[in-house]
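ligand=guanine
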Amino acid sequence: MIILDGKKTSNDIKEEIADEVKSIIFSGGRIPHLSAILVGNDGASETYVNAKVKACEKVGFKSTLIRLPNSVTEKELLLEVEKINNNQNIDGLIVQLPLPNHLDEMKVTEAIDPKKDVDGFHPSNIGRMCLNLPTYLPATPSGILELLKRYEVNTSGKHCVVIGRSHIVGSPMSILMARNSFPGNCTVTLTHSRTENLKEITKSADILIVALGKSEFINSDMIKEGVCIIDVGITRVKSDKTKSGWKLLGDVNFEDVKNKCSYITPVPGGVGPMTIAMLLQNTLISAKGEIF
Ligand code: GUN
């Protein structure tokens, strides 16, 4: 079994990006700049956004974190988005999801200039992805592709089973794995909460991408010998064995499946760090004007 080491791979990518930033500065160019909007004080969102800002510092990007209270109106939030859209010095804008219930996530996502939509969530960028046109790929699916690519996992002709149909992970992942490229060229099955006989389907997967948000849902009875497992889940549970009192669990029971699979991403240190690296990469692509 080979561990798909997202921590190491994301550090490699961050070093590559940091080198590019140095050469941009050396040739008198403008430093890439990512702006993030965080509404409210959801603990998990705060952790993710802080990690994104810290990663910007690490590679030499500028970053701006705009914190808005839970009580912000949709109009006020849209005004912030508009300001950043019009700021020529900012290359990328993300609005951390989920938003409080009174704010329409789709309306806010659609308000982001597609040229600055480094999350790749804008409908026009999703459309471009579906048509295989140059665009920003959503960071988590893109990070998974990058891991499969760098570890040279053979995907062509394989059966890829995706669990979970979220707009952020499962749905785009299913589209990307079916594309005529490497990684890709899979026969894809997208499963979800209404899927019947899930175990029968997961047992036939050569590549299993699990993004349903239920800790340790996948066990060794549900997989085929030699499968490549990508675990997107991150659930924080109480633990008396760690200093912090918490530990992170994936959607896969790692200990149970580890001897049956060919490749696996650990939690933590698998997909999570890759997501941030790909967000930085999208911001660099935007700063260099490579797509639009
Ligand atoms: N919430 C969970 N994942 C993401 C992400 O990749 N981007 C944003 N903006 N919000 C998220």
